[in-house]
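Progress against Task 2.4 (sequence-to-structure conversion) is shown through the following example record, which the project officer requested during the mid-term review.
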Amino acid sequence: MKHQTISMHDDSGTEVTAQAPLIISASRATDIPAFYADWFFRRLEKGHVRWRNPFSGQDSYVSFGNTRFIVFWSKNPAPLLPYLPMIKERGIGCYIHFTLNDYEAEGLEPNVPPLSQRIETFRRAVEALGRGAVVWRFDPLILIDKINIDTLLEKIAHIANALTGYTEKLVFSFADIESYKKVSRNLRQSGINYREWDEESMRESAARLSTLNRNNWNLELATCAERIDLSEYGIGHNRCIDPELISRLAPDDEILQNFLYNAKTDTGQRKACGCILSKDIGAYNTCPHGCLYCYANTSSASALSNYKKSIANPLTDSII
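Structure tokens generated for the chain above:
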């Protein structure tokens, strides 16, 4: 399954060919809600964005002409919230993947707002969109000198208690540091001693989390793009671009419902990913949160530099 293509005019008036997806991902590659919300909604009004392929470096165009649904990803979607009525006015549905971790004491996420502020933002987002439309992610689970499984479970429990009544699901993954050399390098340069997860530690954490959840919150638990089968602990494999959730949130959109009925897994994602087809419009190396474990940035300095260039050119058609 591929996205429909259409002819359109770019900002200079030149006729170009563009992908015209039904579902937009904004974005796995950078935090659009936190840092590029103004830019995104200007582009939504313009009707298209220019997207750069991170592997080939080639630019292409993405039209919003057929867009029926947007999946947002963020660690701080507060700047997005004032724009939500605009999405509704356009007849577009959405939900937010809200990565709400607690790595404050360890300094792993140096530029995110304080945890208490992010918890309040989560609640505000739920009040605006509804409980199912804000998905809690504690992602990734990372083991370092100051964080073991006990510590992680305490951190998860603290947030879960604060989100009682505001979330129905918890999505998580296990940090796979050695697979991303830039991540291992950045952690070492920051003086962070990390430990890789093995199957035994994954199963221990899963079993203990499952027990905590069953006794306290009764959330749906799911892993993101993890091959390990944790179903014996009641933990499933997540589909972050989720046809069931989209269908539930946009029940009256016949075009979208027909697409979802026939939707296939997105073959452009990691092998263990269960997402259906969408078009991501973000760009790597543009998120200034500065998270030390981030796989999407070569370095915090280069990401901050690219962000400043983007802010200096607010009318550009691309994040890059």
